[in-house]
Amino acid sequence: MGAAGSSTLACFALPVSRRPAQLRPVWLGAAALGLAAVVLGTVVWRRTRSRRPRRLQQVGTVAQLWIYPVKSCKGVAVSEAECTALGLRSGDLRDRFWLVIKEDGHMVTARQEPRLVLVSITYKDGRLTFEAPGMEQLVLRSKLPSSNRIHDCRVFGLDIKGRDCGDEVAQWFTNFLKTESFRLVQFEKSMKGRVAKNIVPSVVQNYQVAYPDCSPVHILSEASLADLNTRLAKKAKMDQFRPNIVVTGCAAFEEDTWEDILIGSTEMKKVLACPRCIMTTVDPDTGVIDRKEPLETLKSYRLCDPSERNIYKSSPLFGMYYSVEKLGSLKVGDPVYRMVW
Predict the structure, then answer these.
(1) Is there a contact between 153 and 102 (Cβ–Cβ < 8 Å)?
(2) How far is it, in rounded angstroms, from Cα 114 to Cα 72?
(3) How far is residue 249's CA from residue 153's CA, in Å, rounded to a whole number?
(4) Are residues 285 and 239 in contact, defined by beta-carbon separation less than 8 angstroms?
């Protein structure tokens, strides 16, 4: 019976070896009732705790919403969106559900091919239209034939699938980038995403993502960008940092302190700060990579606490990653509430 059973028997002041046989059912019944009471008490406590009134403190307002269909290409501004477990969605337009890959399946981003930021995308009636300097428009249906090949892809060293978008769009990206052969793949909801604990081992949330770097949602405030721009000779633009949700009406870097937030009907929980890399040094207007600013300036005042160097190393922090705790919808103009329990 183990220690728990022996402890219960001791309360009856009867040695185990001399316990009358007829008392066994009585003891077992009492033990079962006691265990049931403990379990019921635990359930009631948890439910009571979960129903504790939360205090909502408005910390800002949604100024912009962005969906980046193809990783590293231009974003699409939307006025409202659904917030799914995998990120923002507007119809069939999903955040970072498309990815440029090499023939061997390895991802390609603006870190390797900075001119990807010049590719713009519009969406209408289930079709993605691609445009880029010197290229003719290309239209791609968001619903791909099931006969299209599924690729084994690699995103930051992790395996993930992607359905091939066809030879025409593959040739389009290859002709535009002019460095080697590329293909475009699309993530499908039936595919397994990259798991949070494999992306960032220190993360406690249990979520998946398709092709984003770290989490389903990335938030940055206008005030944080304004603070950075007071320190730069050439002003940085918001699209260098590629947030999904831009917040106005808060202090610079106040978003660092928001653990649990409510926007529209969507609840989110902070995952970690966004560690910045040379991607931020790509000029979104020219597709030229500088490799210096604004990264060097951020490093001068936005490094992590020494206790967190095992997570962020030498990367400066700018913006916050969030997981989706409650699915819902949100729109430009929605208040951003910090939830305090």
Answers:
(1) no
(2) 8
(3) 40
(4) no
CB 169 within 8 A of CB 135: no
Distance from first CA to last CA of the chain, Å, rounded? 41
Token representation of residue 281: 């040094």
Backbone φ and ψ for 73, nearest 5 degrees, come out as -90, 175
3-state secondary structure of 176: helix
Q: One-letter amino acid identity for 146?
A: S
Decide if 267 contacts 336 (C-beta within 8 A).
no
Residue type, 158: L
What type of residue is 69?
Answer: P
Q: Are 141 and 124 in contact (CB under 8 A)?
A: no
Residue 83: other Cβ atoms inside 10 A: 27
Helix (H) or strand (E) segment spanning residue 9:
helix 2-11
Sheet holding 138-141, edge to edge: 120-124, 127-131, 138-141
Say if CB 312 and CB 304 are below 8 A apart: yes
What is the tens place of the pLDDT at every residue in 230-241?
999 999 999 999
| Interval 45-61 mean pLDDT | 75
Pairing of strands 217-221, 245-248: parallel
Assess contact for 183 and 243: CB atoms under 8 A: no
pLDDT > 70 fraction of the chain, expressed in percent and rounded? 85
Query: What local confidence, expressed as pLDDT, does residue 50 receive?
Result: 56
Cα 245 from Cα 100, distance rounded (Å): 24
Q: Which two tokens stand for residue 230?
A: 């007071």
Its pTM stands at 0.85
- CA pair distance 121, 130, nearest whole angstrom: 5
